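Co-fold these.
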Amino acid sequence: MKKIFLTMICLALGSIAIAQNATLPQNITVKALDGTSVQTSAIQNDGKPIILSFWATWCKPCNRELNTIKEVYEEWQEETGVKLVAISIDDARSASRVKPHVDGNGWEYEVYIDQNQDFKRAMNVVNVPHTFVINGKGEIVWQHTSFVEGSEEELLEVVKKAAAQTE
Amino acid sequence: MKNISKIILIVAGLLAFASCDKIDEDKYTIFAGVAGDWYTTDADIPHVQRAFIEKYTGVRCIFCPKADDIIHDACNKYGDSVVVVAVHSRSTGFGRPLGNDPSLCTESGDEWFDYFGIDGQPAAMINRSRNNNAWDIFDPTSNFDDRINTVVNSKPNIAISIQCGNDKDSFYFFDINLELLENISDELTLTVLLTEDKIYTRQSKFGEGEVENYEQNHVLRTTITNLWGVDVPDGLIKGDKRMVRFYYLLPDNFNAADVHAVAFVSYKGSRQIINCAQSNLQ
Amino acid sequence: MKNHTKQFLLLALAVLTTPILSAQGILGGHVTGNVQIDGQISSADSVIGAQDVPEKLLMNARADILYTNGDFSAGLRFEAYHNPMLGFKSQYKGEGIANYFVRYQGDIISITAGNFYEQFGSGMILRAYEDRYLGLDNSLRGLNVTLRPFNGITIKALAGKQRYFWNYSNSIVRGIDGEVNLNSLISSMAESKLRATLGAGFVSKYEENQSIYADPSHIFNLPLNVGSGAVRMDLAYGNWGLQTEYARKGQDPSVMNDFIYRNGEALMINATYSQKGFSANIQAKRVDNMCFKSERTESGEMLYINYIPAITKQHTYAFLSMYPYATQTTGEMGLQGDIMYKIKKDTPLGGKYGTDIHLNASVITAIDTTQVPGPGIGYQSDWFKTGELYYADASLEIAKKLNKDLKLTCTYGYQIFNPVVEGHPGDLHHNHIVVADLTWKVDKKNVLRFEAEWMGSDSRFNYDVNDKRCGDWIMGLVEYNFTSAWFVSVSDQYAYRDGIGNYYNVSIGYTHGATRLQMGYGKQREGLLCIGGVCRMVPASNGLTFSLTSSF
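Predicted complex below.
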């Protein structure tokens, strides 16, 4: 059985090559902050890049990331046309606190709640924060887990590149 | 799509109604032992001393209706604390039926009649107590409140309770729970019997002759255990609780709504009754 | 053996077909996935109660492979536990395909066959979910259908068996749920300021009969079908929001409720007000006999069909989460309030960057109960009366950016903790906790973080040798980050008064894209690891841990 496991790992690593240009899954249902169900196909930005950030109210680095980006969000939007979509993975314990949390922090992002974590699973998110950059064609061009102050610069570079790709 | 939604809603409705079992209050547990075997139990048994009033009577006994009235008053007064059994006896004497009425006598009743040496009816005993080495038999046509009082106000040595039910049709079960409240070294026996109320027969009555449709209550109908009871396991000590179950197929001529099950525990040697309990069949 | 063969075939199929399908581009599609490998080497330490591990190395590993092609997707998960890490149930020992599914996900209908995760409303009657850190996987194996016949209506129907380690429970779980969003359904409400969503669900469990003795001569007359239903409402009006859900459960005697026949019920109400820079939220709940498991004799944390969330704040600082609160599904009442306020920039209190204030308080008690003896309903409960105190806490967090490079977060917390929630009655613990957390952005690539914590607890006055948390504690932590790629942290927790324990830890981590490798060396206190009010006991450990996660 160990062999199988090794095969599995090989397969997993091998498929990284295959898995290029994966796109955003289309028909997964998430909830908007007003309770409306929204299909993930609605996550669009008119051919401009999207930052897709998985977070949770209780996750400190997630909050640091979203608060840090908040300071520079307007500049980024002007520069690259980027839109940040924040996907909360809060479960029943804290899902009702997502809207107060977003408002309380003054975030101007598009926020959805993925309470059943279907989107999280489809995107292979293991830990939060997990941030994706999606180019204008809807392809996932970059992803990263964890956040430290300063790494938003790296993110901006990727977004700029993605914006350039589309043009 | 509309149709699919409809079908799903209907299925959902059916599912909602069909998929939830409700167990009735008195059926939370099912007996899983062997009838007649004794088991430990953690049942809650009220620590109450009751009086077992055993009345020897007969349809041809003209003073017996008077005793019935007195006993009726006692029942109203003491409620659950008294258990009455009317033993119609001796089939060759006052117990012999009038006209075409069916006999209310039983073999057990006749045997007790003989054993206790009843020499006239009405006659009564409470808890089969003894007085100066003789059975304390008294005439129940006058008030005997003081006798009942003495018994029901004494401290019980044994607590007893009985529950009845039927698994299916007329197959009834009787669960008897005992709790020793004191250490008792004597051997004990348990007797279970059935009585029935509201049996209407002719009855001879003083001053009125033969009355039609006289209401006979507490009539001993049968013993479930044998006459002198089954042995209670020995070696029990204070605080021990035991239960035993008996089954009985109720004959058609018994009206289940009026039948009571009576259980009493007595000393095997002296045959004096220690405590008793009764329950409706249903 | 048969089972293994089947698994092998499935795996072989997956291994062979996925690259072909995707690489040849005939069918197109993508293969994505994630891998996680955790390992642990622990040696005995009598002071903290760590046991020797005979295997020397313990390892948990899993890999999810997901194939997506348009509306179709299929996935499988391989899990291996050689042997399960400390704190994970030994029943996980072994390896195999733990989870597989195929799914069609269209606009109107989506169908999943195989393992799936699902939740009705807030999960009070059904939540099949997993939490890999708790070692919990309640996935159902069966069929799950979601219908969206009109805009604004969602109907879910499912049937399946619940995962139990490497097997499945011997019961069947069936459920249906409908949800209506009035704003999407009714055109005149589309632009309404009032946003309203209504929902209702029903779940039923069928489990075969078994002989469970109520006393030596009686077995319980068990309901084979146990039903549970809930209604819910989610309203929003401008800055205001109100969510409520009420659930009931039929007779469900189980080992969790001591085989009582009482119906269960749960009510949860949440009200919020929020505007930019300010939010307030109040939450109330009452839970009575709502433990719903797919096997009546399962006493552990497995096989939960439903999920009753804790409404206490999920703390992340070490000392604030040292005494975590676990939901008492058999009965509790609770109230929680939460206020977030941002003091504006360029005000006397706000300073140049503004100040964030976060206040939270909660109190949880038992429900009132009057015992009813004998097999039966168990107890009676006065709806509005509270029982003994289980847990209360209040915390104030102030976060302030001091200048361009320095950010300070200070937290004070006070807790009252009743050890009965962990199953052993005792005196209430009263804890005071102070945390200071300073982040210093040295330059664009180097970030330092310092954390200092203190906890004073009256648990030290009645020292319990079995509770390694007794005493007064201090903790220090220094974390150095080089970009988001590298981090090194050193920390120490020390019971400086009337306690025993010196828990030091050194960790180093490397992140590249969605791959993260982390190693740590040190001592870990035994305790409860809780996520979302669900907890698992983690024994003490002493040694090396490592963790690799990667998504692709």
